[in-house]
Amino acid sequence: MKLTDNEIRDIDRYLESGKSLPDSYRFLLFGDKREVELVWNGKTNEVSTVVLPFQIIEQVDEPREEKDKKMQRTIGDFDARGRQNKGWTNKLIWGDNKLILSSLKNGPLRQEIEKQGGIKLIYIDPPFDIGADFSMDIEIGEESFTKEPSIIEQFAYNDTWGRGNDSFITMIYERLVLMHDLLADEGSIYVHCDWRLNSLIRIILDEIFPEGYRNEIFWRRQPVRGAKATSHQYARNTDVLLFYVKSEKYVWNNAYKPYSKEFIESKFRPDENGRLWRDSDLGDYSESSIEQFEQNGRIYITKSGKKRLIRYLDEEKGEAVGTIWDDIPEVNSMAEERVDYPTQKPEALVERIIKASSNEGDLVADFFCGSGTTLAVAEKLGRKWIGSDLGKFAIHTTRKRMIGVQREMKNAGNDFRAFEILNLGKYERQHYIGVNENLRDEEKRKQLEKKDAEYVDLILSAYRAEPVKNFETFHGKKLNRLIAVGPVNLPVTRLFVEEVINECRQKYITKVDVLGFEFEMGLFPAVQEEAKSKGIDLALKYIPRDVFDKKAIEKNQVVFHDVSYIEVTPHYKDNSVAIELSDFSVHYNQDNAEKAAATLKGGKNRIVVENGQIIKVIKEKSGIVRHVQLTQSWTDWIDYWSVDFDFESKQEIIRVKNVDGDFEEQWTGDYIFENEWQSFRTKKDRSLELTSIYKEYSPGRKKIAVKVVDIFGNDTMKIIEVNIGGK
Ligand SMILES: C[S@@+](CC[C@H](N)C(=O)[O-])C[C@H]1O[C@@H](n2cnc3c(N)ncnc32)[C@H](O)[C@@H]1O
Prior knowledge:
The chain has 727 residues and is α+β, with helices and mostly antiparallel strands. The chain folds into 5 domains: 1-33, no CATH class; 59-256 and 320-424, Vaccinia Virus protein VP39 (Rossmann fold, 3-Layer(aba) Sandwich), CATH 3.40.50.150; 270-314, no CATH class; 440-486 and 491-560; 565-724, no CATH class. The strands form 9 sheets. Strands 15-7-8-6-3-16-17-2-18-1-33 form an 11-stranded mixed beta sheet, with helices on both faces. A 6-stranded mixed beta sheet has the order 19-20-21-22-23-24, with helices on both faces. Strands 10-11-13-12 form a 4-stranded antiparallel beta sheet. Helix 7 runs parallel beside helix 8. The longest helix is centred in the middle third of the chain and has 22 residues, at 441-462. The protein is globular, with a radius of gyration of 30 Å. The relative contact order is 0.11. Bound molecules: S-adenosylmethionine.
């Protein structure tokens, strides 16, 4: 850097008077010689380096029968039940993909990914349409009801859209840098976006993948119809896919689509057997090749005596695919593949991408996986996969979809892989209070402390508890119970609760409430039982959304509800046991009937959830208010349930770095729920079986685990002990 004396003096003057430097100094002071670059308020080259442990909470694998096991040559080994127990297991990870990506990049799973040849293809479809992603329509009987986003989802939404395009670009930039790093050298990335952000995303992709640009593809979502056609501009009926590669070594298979009807009609004619053919120039074929064609009856002689090559339609690959994709329709309301996820993309679209940019056996990833379209297509095309999403409902939708794919593959006699559902393990306090990342460290720390204290005070006052000091994990006290407040924008994890239990043991505390917006999957009841065995009465309670509503706090209307409750009954037949789901209750609240009745206009209705009941509040034109309870039976709350017939058979093993810096395997002390049997509602079939199949055992004691996922996507587990052949 060479500055003139004048420039140095100038800079001194600006700094002394506490003013910002003019923009022109950016190019003089910094080494970066990029000529064109997108800059925005908050842009930084720093990316997350956090490594959080992944916890496997469930393994899903449709058991293979004897005949299928022989067919499975490519996958790995199978246990006596026909479940995969070796080789790569696909991964569905619940959590914020920033933390997931940095943990994949810097943590022990990286080695496993590299062993598979690295990630060859990433497709992402981030939430580019403000407000579209986190509310879910849930069917209940004949009615449909909109589940509002959870607080955690709302925080993510604010992170993404709080400051409009600036925050979206900040969000996606950091994640794209991490994805670039994770991609194999032969890897490609497709970023699905639309007119709102394609121009900005393309510029940042140019920066992150220098020389990597391949295509900007326009996907016609739908033909132009109705009002769209008459608005004051051309109808916006396309999405954009930006295709970039990491290096020149990228995987590529030419893509073709069938010829159009018009093209076939204009170019092809039938031969005497009705087989369609056309003729084409012989180009630079050698004499001997032409002779060969003649012997095979592949030469056509024109009226003027010229030789032309005969090409049959059924032997042609079709039309090479260009950058306008107008042959793939959106997922319509009747489509077979529809899973009722609002932003679901068509399988045919992702299929074209996966076929062109990966080969069988390659690892494909989608870090904004939504309903799991990429993962479903990857599995069907024999690719390995990693998917992640922040929404519990998205993870649950994907779980059901992938079980459906496994069943489909099994019925067709094809290979399929087991998949795991993972949580991100341990969160640190600074990740969960939305601190402004653009501040300097000292200011960040101060803001974090302040926000943290405000948040805890708010929750304690809503819970009618008093603050306490000098504890590590406790924030408050109510009657004779100590209160630990969970994070605001992340779920309460097992490690969080374990720290609470440790402090209880050190300080002889026996009664505790842990409050959280969401709880890690598979957390209860195991953690409560663990506490009980140590003499601690541990209650887990959901913090309701209306803690942020001052009036509700003042009126003492805020109800912290308990986690769900499951009752199961084992049925014995000789040495076999079947599990019946005999009761289930939840205590959710969303909105309330009194408020709805007061604010509704005559002739309108609204659906609310009050203490675990879904109620339709109807206000007649006359002003009379009626309540119709939509949840008629406890089973209405259940979307899915599954059974692990031998719960303690699969230990959760993780890889941790030892003192020498090498990774070694360690048992966490927990078990992985193996999803061996399940019943769930689908869009087409809303019925649910309430008793499992009979499972045969050798005599002895066994632990059986039952997992229920409710229609909001939250899960609860229950473990029972059975004594087979016992007296
Ligand atoms: C447009 S949808 C993807 C739809 C998907 N392509 C499909 O076919 O179903 C975007 C998804 O990104 C998820 N998401 C948003 N922010 C996220 C984050 N920070 N980490 C992980 N997932 C996130 C949302 O929950 C949503 O499911």
